[in-house]
Amino acid sequence: MNNNDLLFDFKVDKVAKTVYITREFNAGLDLVWDAFSRPELLDQWGAPAPMRAKTKYMDFKVGGRRFYAMVSPDGQERWSVQEFTSITPKTNFKMYNTFADKDENRELPGSDWDYNFSEQDGITKVYIVIYNESFERLEKLLEGFKIGFTMTLKNLEELLVKLS
């Protein structure tokens, strides 16, 4: 399958304060799961260019956290904390995500992310539901989020081609 034929869908339900994203990748489930759950891979695709992702630490287990920054070319850092609340290997994980300062002090409110993975005929589908605690948080998230997230998923697509 040509990568241009892969599904990408991005929907916002402002009343429900929820974003729904579906994206297919021309790669196997094991590789796509690793790309979402291993910090050395996340850092290779997890920020829109020219930004880059930098994971300070990540403990991918229920109750574990990832503390990372998106770093701009001039060195400015925007930190986030992701706390893993549920993990079913290779099919689903959930996390609470919030911005933070460099000392890991959280900026509230945050958002709940629910990732679902499935594979059919070598195509892996990732379905993401992002629920925001407040409408203000949703509005803040949407400022450039679709463009930035689309760019990061493109980065992932390119990384998966390199790793396959």
UniProtKB/TrEMBL annotation:
Activator of Hsp90 ATPase homologue 1/2-like C-terminal domain: residues covered: 29-160
SUPFAM superfamilies reported for this sequence: Bet v1-like (SSF55961)
Pfam families the record matches: AHSA1
InterPro entries, A to Z: ASHA1/2-like_C, START-like_dom_sf
Family membership noted in the UniProt record: Belongs to the AHA1 family.
Record's protein name: SRPBCC domain-containing protein
Organism of origin: Mucilaginibacter defluvii
